[in-house]
Fold this sequence. Notes:
16% strand, four-stranded antiparallel β-sheet, pyridoxal phosphate, globular, alpha/beta, Aspartate Aminotransferase, domain 1, transferase, 2 domains, binds glutamine, 15 helices, single chain, Aspartate Aminotransferase, domain 2, 15 strands
Amino acid sequence: LNRRLAEFGTTIFAEMSALAVRTGAINLGQGFPDTDGPEEVREAAVRALRDGRGNQYPPGPGIPELRAAIAAHQERFYGHLGLSCDPDTEVLVTTGATEAIAASLLALLEPGDEVIALEPYYDSYAACIAMAGGRRVPVTLRPRPESGTYALDLDELRDAVTDRTRLLLLNSPHNPTGTVLTRDELAEIARLACERDLLVVTDEVYEHLVFEGAHLPLASFPGMRERTVTIGSAGKTFSFTGWKIGWVTAAPELVAAVRSAKQFLTFTSGGPFQYALAEALALPDSYYAGFLNDLRAKRDLLGDGLRAAGFEVYQPQGTYFVTTDIRPLGHTDGHAFCRALPERAGVVAIPNAVFYDHQEQGAPFVRFAFCKKTEVLQEAVDRLKGLA
Ligand code: PMP
Ligand code: GLN
């Protein structure tokens, strides 16, 4: 393994899911739903397979039907904010958001460029910045125990920008903390990006999981449309994480750049799934509302249960993850806690420290996923009550 990747090892998600399988524990670690997405969308994939649509290389940028559906989705949900995109020049289908992140960074960074990312961050960010030869500069979201939320210090963000900063890599709703950046924070980030002439890659895969208020795409803020690469994922929005279909929307020059990298990573992405997801994106509002309401109820069930079990809970405003502080339970090391948890309580969770450069900042925090059946969450909560 080369020096760029040597520090990364095996992803925590693979490690913890393997631990769940080995111990038979309830897996609230890796973020994947235990209920597949809509039946009619699965049927659409079967139809495409059977009818021979997408069984051979689809067009590299994505099939026209899916690109049109992505553009229509942007218009439908964000048109009132002035956002729209051209399906031919401003949309790229990718192999999950994971490839969208990798291709964006590989396309846009020069070796030595600095990339600012909000810490804790989704684990692929650090590895992809490294593969692209960039230097990561973390800006830490700080826990605010009094309000049970995390906060971005905008002065800290501003101070992190140097002459070598090329790009901000953002994520809102934020994995793992569940933070949703406010309108004011996004406006300030947009001002900073314009002032310092920065590109922004914004990972908005949880755009349909904002529990209070509505999702605000960063690209809709003044001056951002032409400097922002926005990333979405069918895995998250339609509960098909195994299909690995995501997308990028951005101005034509940026999409062309990301496409250049994508060509040589995968060239194209799962054909029949693209046909099915073109239909999924057009599902009525009731689908999106139902998905959100279901996960809000699950957030509350798990959050209440964790509180009752003695955890300090950081209430997520978005995503399907909840971050907890384990210190009230008498523990300080999330790694050790998560390694022992299957044995002690029959539950698997993720230590937040893995999402930090400043690991000590994340040490006492542990993430649980609530994209699971109600009875599974209930059982997990019952088991965790035995910990105190
Ligand atoms: N970004 C974030 C913030 C995520 O949480 C995830 C998946 N857990 C991804 C990207 C990757 O998405 P995909 O499965 O579409 O590659
Ligand atoms: N994004 C999911 C999570 O944060 C896992 C994705 C993966 O396993 N790569 O849990």
